[in-house]
Amino acid sequence: MSIRPVLLLLLACSITVCTSGALAPGREVLRAPTKQVIKNYFATDRTRVSLTCEPERFLVQINFTQPFRGVVHAGHKKGKCKIRGDGSRAYTLRVPLNDCSTTHNRAKLKP
Questions:
Q1: Which of 7, 18, 81, 110 has the fewest CB atoms within 10 Å distance of its CB?
Q2: 20: domain range?
Q3: pLDDT digit string, tens, across residues 47-64
Q4: InterPro entries annotated for this entry (predicted)?
Q5: Number of domain units in the chain
């Protein structure tokens, strides 16, 4: 039985990456930051992810160093905001602001 890599995305117009020893090797999980982070990208030894916030959606651009054959999704796994890797190295996930479990937080940014 083979384990396919999965990259989960939970977005808040800022993204951070965390890895946990409890996860299977090769799995990375993106989570909404617990504090305000003014950064729209991150990179690991296997991935480079950038986030662009548009008026009606997020664009998540993901580049892998190796061909990717896993699943990238925002919101629920069975939702429509997902990409199935076909062996390419670059993908763009489009996440509407009114779908895929997104929430709008009107909190003001501190200068």
A1: 110
A2: 6-96
A3: 898 888 787 888 889 999
A4: ZP_dom (IPR001507)
A5: 1
Q: Which residues contact 14 (CB under 8 A, 6 or more apart)?
A: 32, 33, 36, 37, 38, 39, 40, 51
Q: How confident is the model over 65-77, as pLDDT tens digits?
A: 999 888 888 776 6
0.90 surpassed by pTM? no
Residue reference for tokens 């950064």: 39
**Does 109 reside within a domain?**
no
Assigned domain for 74 exists: yes
Secondary structure of the chain as H, E, C letters? CCCCCEEEECCCCCCEEECCCCCCCCCEEEECCCCCCCCCEEECCCEEEEEEECCCEEEEEEEECCCCCCEEEECCCCCCCEEECCCCCEEEEEEECCCCCCCCCCCCCCC
Give 54's contacts (C-beta < 8 A, 6+ positions apart): none
Give the residue ranges of the chain where pLDDT is below 50.
Answer: 1-24, 30, 32-37
